[in-house]
Amino acid sequence: MGRRKASAAKHATLFSDERVVVGVDDLVLLSSVSETSILENLKMRHAADVIYSYIGHVLVVVNPYKWLDIYGEDSMRSYMHKARIDVAPHVFATAEETYRTMLSEEDNQCVIISGESGAGKTEASKQIQNYIAGVSGSGAGVDKVKRTFLESNPLLEAFGNAKTLRNNNSSRFGKYFELFFDSAGQPQGGKVTNYLLEKSRVVKPGKGERNFHIFYQVLAGLPSTAKQKMHLDRGRPEAFQYLKASECYDVDDVNDAQDFEETMAAMQHVGIKRKQIELVIQTLAAVLQIGNVQFQSETVGDAEGSSVRDRESLQIACELLGLDAVRLEHALCYKLLQTMAPGGKIESYEVPQNMSQAKAQRDSIAKVVYDRLFDFLVERVNHALDIEKKAEKHGENLDIDDMTKIGILDIYGFEIFDQNGFEQFCINYVNEKLQQIFIELTLKSEQEEYAREGIGWSPIPFFNNKVVCDLIEARRPTPGIFLVLDDTVKTMHSRQGDSVDANFLEKVAGIHGSHPHFSKRGKTFEIKHYAGDVQYSIEGFGDSNKDSLSKDIALIISETSNKLMRYIFPEEIDLNDKRMANTAGYKMRTQCDALVTALMDCTPHYVRCIKSNDQKQSNKIDDRRVIHQIKYLGLLENVKVRRAGYAYRGDYGRFVDRFWLLSKETYPEFRGSDKKGTQAVLRAATKLLPQLENEVQLGKTMVFIQTPETFFELEKLREKKLGSFAMRIQKAWKKYFGCRHLLQLSHDITKLYTSNNKQRQRVSIYRPFDGDYLRDNTIREAVMEIIQHNKDSEKIVFMDEIEKVCPMAGISPEGSPVAVMGRIFVITDQFVYLMEKRTWHPILDPKSTWVPPLVYLRRRLQLTAIEEITMSTLADPYFVLKVRQEPLLVEPNKSNWVDNKSTMVCMATGRKFGLFNRRHHCRYTGKIYCSDVCKQLEVVPDLGFYTPVRVSDKVLGLMCTEMPEDQLLVSEKKTEIAVTLVDAIRSLANVATPISFSDSTLLRRAANARLSKTPSQQIQFVSSGHDIIRGDANSVQIQVAPGVPDEYIRKRRKREKTRRKRREKQREEELVVRAQRQEQRGREREAERLRRKSTKASMESARKFGENVHSTATNGSVVGANSELAAILARRRGV
């Protein structure tokens, strides 16, 4: 703001010292780039509890395994409306950038959070949601949407999270949360999509782990009467096999009973009714009872069969689920098989199930019921967030196509266990796809874009994991693992699980045996993933991929009497239908494709989570584990691309749309091409940002800016321009709506003048009241800084430069015993400020032509301290504020002083105190500083320091240096000042401040005469032919010219009334014309936007068509997946 010359201290925020940066905030700024240097920087910051770092726009977070107090409301406010580069790295900064980019670009955004299990992804997701909820407006409907999506977190965590060996609150499902916003940035609805719930955990949690949280919450928190009703009166987890098997029942620092209450409250918040909640708990109880159903071996004919050993648990489970216990028992012990007889007739027969097969049937019921229950809860959340239902209910016009969205992806991290099965295979597949998106959008596509646009560039090598994705999911030319598994399951649907698994392994090894990322090892196969080599046991692959109940069990469940079970199992079962249900692998691929499509439709923001150690210990970094994550997350390559690349890249049309108001050539109207518009904007901006000239490159269709610092400076220019527009609009708005009120005040003061025979100056007749007359933005910013420092309301009702009459030693050559000093006079809704403006002359730098003036606070008065306003009866600009006096303090106030022994270093510079670096208390702030930053001497009368004392350089000009006393002030706007003060005092304290008239007055001076800035003489007003001040040591005579006659006043008012009517009519006509122009301009810009969108879509379509043609030419004719598979196997056998 230019508030100090080079040799003077700058005004700064008083009580916020500069942030200490540990290492570097952005890894792009490392002096040397290597995996080791990245590790060392992360370690250094982690040790100082600084867990966030950047790689350009990518946020890197190291899990501290302890709670840090950096997520409160104060922290949130510090990131609002701040550019990423201006604040410390934080998940709030990423959330702020995501939200503001959505508003400014009117484009969909997404946040992709990735990392290992236990790296902190879920916490990052919740903090992003909390931040967006905090900044995105308010209102009854908006608050309900925000409450729903925030309350969905504890609900879905209870049913979808569990304690694992790596994480006490591990997400065992994937969640993509989308929040839809209107044009004002207010959330109107949302949608949750869940992926691959770890159903196997329901029946078999690992040793030392727990089942899903909700089971333990129900057992701990459900009232005893409800437990009896649900047959849970045995109460402890040890009583249920599905919970007992893992031998882990509790989690450190987790209160399951308290969490149960939160989960129940969350269910109600998202609109689940009490009866539905009861049915949900009833279903959970049934799942636990199913796990207690045990079997015994039994010979059936010549076959090994089984029977239910204890029917009590089965009976209870069927009662809770509304099922026929006799039929279900039979279906568990006998499997219905169907074959096609000659002539097309279907024959059915029952096959006895041995104990392990019966248990598998039992477990499949528990898994499917819990999975459907979880889907039901997600559906209820989506119902509560549904935009169309909201619009229909409230009669609102809400169209989801007109909205933008923010998606937040919180999905299970990459997993490598001692025993990895089908679920780990699916989880790691999804992580491979997410890594592929990261590579496509941050490493591969960026470099391809530079080449396509003709931008100079040195390619950065990186590992592209597309080869691994193709190994898993490809359809042609070589079918991937998923396709091989589907084919095996379909061709061997009537075979037992073990034989299906073995056949699958044989087939996949035959097809991919020579693949560099695949190898077969006994009854396992290994894949070299981007995050490491993983061995998968084939046991259960076939059954897990089938992902369906046997038809006879499905038929029994479909005939349930339980309302909730009927709702979550709506299918009609036809035993004669030979079609197989879609496999789990097919569903996974379909969901993953939809997720990738949704993410690619958004502008992505990345949060890369790093696990500091495997023991979940705070203040510990495992170098080997962190280096491994740095490698597979591709952080080194990301840093290299960022260092060599461009921080901003955007097409010309979007750039012009964003920055067109920076150039007079493009604003307010521009008819040229987007590229010419971009060039015009850059020409104008380069005059203020010279570095743009060397940092900008223009491609064929896009503009590139190298460093984020320069781009943010460009954004600040835009914000400053918008701020000036907003200031003008606000001023006009206030003036318009305040006009009637001020007009009434003007009428009231005119009556008061008339009744007291007050003469009027010509300049004051019918002068419209404005309130804000400070035109210099530099001065305005300095004034606002002083007001903000004093934590005053920023509602300013009057602001202008006036004059103050001060005493003077002796008599001036003109015969005046007083001096008239300039002051800035400000009235807020609580205080009056008198400030002094000082202009500095460029003595030190002869080349400089202008130095910004400085503003110093002289006196701050509470409105209620003004007891009276006095004027003369003559036509003069003088008025007196009669101010309540305050007694002198007997002792200085040191209550805010820091203890001398509490610090050994300067609280500003950090330098240690010593013989040549003395310590000093700043008498104003009470902090302890060294001489270098605490050398100013100033009086601080409000704290009892009536002689100059040391104060910090930072606070010079921000504190009062004059005492409360009567003020003789001079302003042509004294009438407006007087009525504004009276009105403000009345609004604040409901007190009527009198306005008196007297041609002679004696001012009351400060209690400390040495600090008084008010004349001690008697003030007399005398009518004469000239405006002049005369006097001596006893009196001051202010001579003023006579006022205007009453006839002139009446004629002037009549003319002004006629002019006002004419102006109002002209204004209405101008508004109509302006609206028509704006509408036409809007149509033209929309047409141009659609044209660009159409062109881009056509180019993308042509590109995809070219790829398909190339693929067809390479692969030959497209044949079915099964026939391809058969042909490949035949060729391999022939070889």
UniProtKB/TrEMBL annotation:
UniProt-listed InterPro entries: Kinesin_motor_dom_sf, Myosin_head_motor_dom-like, Myosin_TH1, P-loop_NTPase, Znf_FYVE, Znf_FYVE_PHD, Znf_RING/FYVE/PHD
Annotated SMART domains: FYVE, MYSc
GO CC annotations on file: cytoplasm; myosin complex; plasma membrane
UniProt record, GO biological process: actin filament organization; endocytosis
Any one Gene Ontology molecular-function term assigned to this protein's record: microfilament motor activity
Myosin motor domain segment(s): 22-719
Keywords on record: Actin-binding, ATP-binding, Metal-binding, Motor protein, Myosin, Nucleotide-binding, Zinc, Zinc-finger
Residue ranges, compositional bias (Basic residues): 1054-1064
Domain TH1 per the UniProt entry, residue ranges: 758-1042
Family, similarity comment: Belongs to the TRAFAC class myosin-kinesin ATPase superfamily. Myosin family.
Protein name (Swiss-Prot/TrEMBL): Uncharacterized protein
